[in-house]
């Protein structure tokens, strides 16, 4: 794929086609994922001169990990050892179409469709990574309850200043790849719009058992936010630097600021090997962030005031290595002191107060989005229990700090002022062998 060219799918939302120039390969791929469907896929394939050269999955599926969320072993790491997040994403929210509880044959259909993806693409950024999760609403149709070893709560507002819509769809599929064509093809195979992907025949699809009720898309990684900043919520000056993997200008997901896959895994009971999946749809409003706040204020609000004072962050923060230097700089322990004396507290600093035994509780797999023509972020996080998420979010809210200092409920209180949670949903990601329409007792 060359760097400029026709802008078929980009015209509608990348916007930049309007200037008359072609759009870059990255913008094109993002726009195709955001639009979706057969025409976006064929435009994408046409532009790149055919499907990307992607390895197929194993013949023996028993070689795949028991955990659906075992992604890290397949992903590249940067020079500091940080996991490189897959660049293109699709989230499909699905409802069960049947009455009552799912039948064995429906379960088999779902498993066969997922096995189609397992076979068609090798796991990895160069191939495909995916998970499927189920909501509390899904489990309500059964007489039995989920076991005590699973903490899956109904989603709810988690701050006095938010009023999110609640995601009560039955299931969520998260598709991730470095190739836009791969997430689009996988999606179409699941929805029954394509029977062969990457040269592999898929025996079944979800249609008739699970129907799509919402579709969310996005991207993460160097260059993509800058290429796609021509949306509402970001100043027209185009302030996002090309080295930033996220709209807010900084890198996230440092190795030492993420929970490990082991630590978020459910240890006991029928869903041992699974985890919980929290999903928030967040709207970003970055006008003030970029037009009024200085670079130093942005560093202070995102990381910690010490990081601003000592000028610790260069560019997007790659120089920090494998850690955002929270404990190293004593930031979490000084949150209250900073709120009182500096009148500002950092997002990372506050969130790190929720750590247990020195390690974060959540494994974040979030990404930026242009859904609805507005800059946003789909916050996907994995944690052993939904309570771990709630506790971390409470630490991030910093209400305790606002009460005891000049820091406002949102102002100078990390990045709360720049984000609005529009939707929240909670899901259980069962282990792989129970990923198809599970029963609450895992039988
Ligand atoms: C709105 C967009 C958000 C952006 C751009 C963002 C960005 C960041 C950045 C740059 C860091 C510092 C280091 C790192 O990630 O390795 C961080 C840390 C963190 N953020 Fe966020 N974040 C966002 C939203 C959230 C939300 C909604 C939560 C939910 C509670 C959250 C929880 C955390 C946690 C737990 C940490 C790590 C704290 C630790 O080191 O223990 N973030 N975030």
Question: How is this structure best described in words?
Answer:
- The chain is built from 15 helices and twelve strands.
- The model is unreliable at 1-21 (pLDDT under 50).
- A hairpin with a 6-residue loop joins strand 10 (367-369) and strand 11 (376-383).
- Strands 3, 8, 9, 10, 11 and 12 form a six-stranded mixed sheet that branches.
- The chain is of the alpha+beta class.
- 26% of the residues lie in helices and 16% in strands.
- The longest helix is centred in the first third of the chain and has 17 residues, at 104-120.
- Residues 246, 248, 250, 252-254, 257, 282, 302, 324, 326, 347-348, 351-352, 355, 360, 362, 377, 379, 392-393, 396, 415, 419 line the site of protoporphyrin IX containing FE (HEM).
Keywords, please?
443 residues, alpha+beta, 6-stranded mixed beta sheet, 4-stranded antiparallel beta sheet, 15 helices, 12 strands, 16% strand, disordered N terminus, binds protoporphyrin IX containing FE
